[in-house]
Amino acid sequence: MMDSMIVHSAAGALVEITDVRKSYFSNRVETPVLHGINVTMQRGDFVAVMGQSGSGKSTLMNILGCLDTPTSGAYRLAGVDVGAQSRAELATLRNRTIGFVFQSFNLLKRMSVLDNVALPLIYAGVSRSASRSRAQTQLDKVGLGELASRQPNQLSGGQQQRVAIARALVVDPPLILADEPTGNLDTRTSNDIMALLNELNRERGQSIILVTHEPDIAAHAKRLVRLKDGLVLYDGPAAEGLRQLRTDDNTASASEVSQ
User: Fold this and answer.
1) What is the pLDDT of residue 252?
2) Which of 162, 207, 233, 258 has its CA 20 to 30 A from that of 98?
3) Under DSSP, is residue 119 helix (H, G, I), strand (E, B) or coil?
4) Among 211, 230, 229, 231, which Cα is nearest to 221's?
5) Which domain holds residue 126?
């Protein structure tokens, strides 16, 4: 049933977040984090999410990645009502629909590069031989096919992130969630990784949501969503949003100097 729902929704929005609110509770004390978020993302979008610490962007990413659930509101992913899924159904939806790329790579040190990339397919029930064959194909596409037998600690940071991207792509998910993917990389390597993500979006139509605090990285996206205090402050073209951000920063700096 889930497969048919995903196929049926192919022409519609990939991500639909409607009035999503999130609070955390400790000793009966409520701490609101998201205060009514509305975001729609079409297939083929490349969206950067920015916000200062405490803005709610990490909470939003966890909800987008089906790693957490809203306190209220609705989230539809590829046409599927996320809130109506059981834990098992949610795990299946996440595995088939989302590829994750993290700042810290999250590669298993004792496994070869090839087996790291093949892991999502193994979880999906694909045979080991077929999984490794498809993993090799993805490694070839990110330019690391010759390093398949190495272990992650034998690679540079940029190479490890390419492995992580290959792993995210191996199940051919419609959405990639990239959480600070260049945070541990130098400028040149960061540019290489962003060039790869741009290529995936432009040539393969891969939909990408990128969380970053760096304007230079966000500039690669087509669209920018800025959060502040659990609300959407801006949602529109990335170039315009970054111009506004620079203006806001300059205004804040001038205010601090005058005080």
Assistant:
1) 62
2) 233
3) helix
4) 211
5) 109-172
Q: Partners of 37 in the beta sheet?
A: 20
Number of domains in the chain: 1
Residue 36 lies in a domain: no
Q: What's the pLDDT score for residue 5?
A: 35
pLDDT at 111: 95
Q: In this structure, what token pair is assigned to residue 125? A: 């029930």
pLDDT mean over 119-137: 94
The pLDDT assigned to 3 comes to 40
User: Is residue 168 domain-resident?
Assistant: yes
CB of 211 closer than 8 Å to CB of 178 = yes
Give the span between the Cα atoms of 96 and 249, in whole angstroms.
Answer: 40
Paired residues of 72 in beta bridges = 21
pLDDT at 210: 96
Is the distance from CB of 63 to CB of 22 less than 8 angstroms?
yes
- Strands, sheet with 80-81, edge to edge from the N-terminal-most edge strand: 29-41, 15-26, 72-77, 80-81
Residue 27 lies in a domain: no
- Among residues 55, 62, 19, which one has the least CA distance to residue 38? 19
pTM passes above 0.70: yes
Residues in the chain: 259
Instruction: Give burial (CB, 10 Å; 0-12/13-18/19+) of 1.
Output: exposed
